Hints:
alpha/beta, Spore Coat Polysaccharide Biosynthesis Protein SpsA, Chain A, seven-stranded mixed sheet, three-stranded mixed sheet, 13 helices, elongated
Amino acid sequence: MEQFLLILFYFFIAVVTIQVIYYLFIFGKFSFAKPEENKVKHIPISVLVCAKNEEENLKKLIPLLIDQNYPSFEIVIIDDASSDDTRFLVEDFQKIYSNIKLVKVDNNETFWGNKKFALTLGIKAATKEYLLLTDADCFPNSENWIAEMSSHFTLHKTIVLGYGAYEKEPGFLNKLIRFETLLTATQYFSWAKLGKPYMGVGRNLAYKKDEFFKNNGFINHMKIRSGDDDLFINEAARGENTTIAWNTDGFTYSAPKTSFGEWFMQKRRHASTAKHYKAFDRSQLALFYLSQFLFFVTPITLLAFRYQWIIVLSLIAFRYLTAWISLGFSAGKLEEKDVMYWYPVLEIILIFTQLNVFFRNIFSKPVTWK
């Protein structure tokens, strides 16, 4: 038993070391980054919104896009075979605003229900070389959203990863959703700053149209219903062509799920695409989440037998301190400070939710798009 506890003790030290490396040296690339100032470029932008039965959301979103403080942009609304009055609503807006374009997508037997097919048609119809994407149920955080996101484009930086936040609402579920969003953003922002971008979110994402066509669009994963954002970025993004935008003017917000079941299904859809990432990206994500899980289960036996319990408790405290500091700085940048008060509880619930998602996705496929 003594030999087993010794091995377990050293294993726990290794787990804590991995966690500290992630939080301080990897996530720290974003968490401790200094603010960046970019001049407004005023390059022509096409704002793309893919909509399926989003009439009510578009009533709110289109006026916010129209009011953007930007000199040259068009709004491309892609009506993906909606059964409501989405198409007629956009046509009414077109009568008033000349920079609104409607792309009508009818049901296609080959690509039925595939958002990527609809988005491809919208990208082809866009007249500007730079594309800014969001969802119909999102809204920009300021009238300078386009200006902020487009300011990060340079001659070589042709992909911009933005932050798609969720609205603050009362309740524990809201804090859990926003904590998960904070952790995810910290991860993909940090790896992008390290020169290894692996994903972005379609709620707030920009890239040059040329990047889309150089990558042959979504062709390599067209049969996978989800992943028009993260799978595309996983293929097209590289250290030299990708940058991040985290000024609050450039945020988008959307309404979070209001029930655990709905959020759980959303998590399943998002997780189903990760297995298609590049090998390195899958490995680094797996290592982080596995070490995160093992950090909680490994010391149980050690503490039960009071084996080196002072050192074990010290290691637990040290890991929590480094994680709290790292995520705390990130939360400050992304205006999510309030969730950090609940951090230990939120982390534990999220870990076991992700474990549930992993096993559920093995035995059944989640439903995607609408």
